[in-house]
Amino acid sequence: MIGNPVLTKELRDRVRTWRSPMVITLYLGLLAVVGGFFIFEQTRGGMGGPRVYRMGIEIFNVMAVLQIGIIAFLTPGLTAGVISGERERQTLPLLMITRMSPLAVATGKLISAISYMLLLTVISLPFYSVVFFFGGVSLSQFFQVSGILMVATVLLGSIGMFFSSLFKRTTVAIIVTYAATFMLFVGTIFLTAFIMQITRYYIGSPVTGPQTVPFVIYFNPLVALGSVLPMGGNILPFSTGNLAVQSLTPWQVNLLLDAAIILLTMGLTVWLIRPNRAGTKRRG
Amino acid sequence: MIRVAGLAKQYGKFEALKGITFSIDEGSIFGFVGPNGAGKTTTMKIMATLMTPTAGQAFVDDIDVTRHPQKVRQVVGYMPDFFGVYDRLKVTEYLDFYASCYRIAANRRRNIIADLLELVDLSHKADAYVDSLSRGMKQRLCLARCLVHDPKVLILDEPASGLDPRARVEMRELLRELKKMGKTIIISSHILSELSELCTHVGIIEAGELAAEGTVERITEQLSSDRLIQVRVSSGQETAADIIREQPGVAVVTETADGILQVSFSGDSARQTELLRKLINAGIPVLSFAETSNSLEDLFMRITKGVVQ
Ligand SMILES: Nc1ncnc2c1ncn2[C@@H]1O[C@H](COP(=O)(O)OP(=O)(O)OP(=O)(O)O)[C@@H](O)[C@H]1O
Ligand SMILES: [Mg+2]
Question: Which of B10, B11, B158 to mutate to test the pocket of ligand 1 (most atoms within 8 A of CB)?
Answer without folding.
Answer: B11
